[in-house]
Amino acid sequence: MFDSTALADPGASKQAIQYHYDVGNDFYHLWLDETKTYTCALWEGAQTLQQAQEQKLDYHISQAGASGTRFALDIGCGWGPALTRMVDHHRVHHAIGLTLSQQQADYISSLGDNRIEVEVQSWFDHIPAQPYDAIVSIGAFEHFARPDMSHSQKVAGYRSFFDRCHAWLRPGKRMSLQTIAYENSDRHDLHPFIAKEIWPETDLPRLADIVVAAERKFEIIRLRNDRADYVRTCNAWIHRLNERQDEIIGLVGADVFHRYVHWFKLSMIGFHTGTMSLLRITFQRVP
Ligand SMILES: C[S@@+](CC[C@H](N)C(=O)[O-])C[C@H]1O[C@@H](n2cnc3c(N)ncnc32)[C@H](O)[C@@H]1O
């Protein structure tokens, strides 16, 4: 059996993640919705991107059983939409976020909310100050394996993630995870542009890898594949990028603008055809 505890951090490096976010907070905040959520929304009945993002945040927070709890963790917190939603709308006493992006952490700190804490730290290095009552992780698991890893290294890396989450959560508590996954494809089927220009050092999981890695640590109590929701989210992002085209090009240049539009168009095709899926998985800690 592969000893997952002996591994170095199996995911994309801080430098690779920062490469993506170094385009700057101002760029992302010109076209993301007001919550600054940078992952697939949950559209069921929603009319606007913002409604769909809030519905998605509420879904994960309630699936994780976070409402009314003392300490909740968000692994890969971005600009903090789930942290803010937890303390403002779900009576969470203290919400802790992990990100690898200094710019995201600076933005969250600038909100000046003492119910929220953020650390520029990988889950791999995190040592909690207390056990958690709930964990959410929305759109970060995509970065927890690198393309140069063998399949068994990849599963062992995921296993070390679930081992840690198991150790950090109180018995019987829950984690809600959202991730893109390979569906009818593998790493060779995706356009090389994504690995080269958008997300270096990143390799997607397959559902089966997640299931195996979580075995005997977490029971899966709910699973959804909402890939159509990502088609609609990318479409909304393309519209919003186009609406602010002049400002965006003034801020970051035409190359960056076209790179993002191209990426979201490719992604729409990928989710529409079932090349990629969008998984939302609710896990309950095995005691
Ligand atoms: C696509 S963003 C999603 C942000 C947020 N959850 C949302 O829904 O808007 C991915 C996030 O995962 C973080 N991330 C990537 N690898 C990580 C790691 N090893 N440990 C902690 N955070 C990580 C990034 O810094 C970023 O904040």
Overview of this structure, please?
The chain is α/β, with parallel strands linked by helices and 287 residues long. It has a single domain, classed as Vaccinia Virus protein VP39 (Rossmann fold, 3-Layer(aba) Sandwich). It has helices at 14-21, 25-31, 49-63, 81-89, 102-110, 151-168, 192-198, 207-214, 227-243, 245-252, 254-272; strands at 71-75, 94-99, 116-120, 132-138, 169-182, 218-225, 276-285. A 7-stranded mixed sheet has the order 3-2-1-4-5-7-6, sandwiched between helices. Strand 4 (132-138), helix 6 (151-168) and strand 5 form a beta-alpha-beta unit. Helix 3 (49-63) packs across helix 4, helix 6 (151-168) crosses helix 8 (207-214) and helix 9 runs antiparallel to helix 11. The longest helix has 19 residues, at 254-272. The two termini are 22 Å apart. Residues 1-6 have low confidence and may be disordered. Bound molecules: S-adenosylmethionine. The site of S-adenosylmethionine (SAM) has 22 residues, from strand 2.
Note the main attributes of this structure.
disordered N terminus; alpha/beta; 287 residues; binds S-adenosylmethionine; 19% strand; globular; single chain; 7-stranded mixed sheet; Rossmann fold
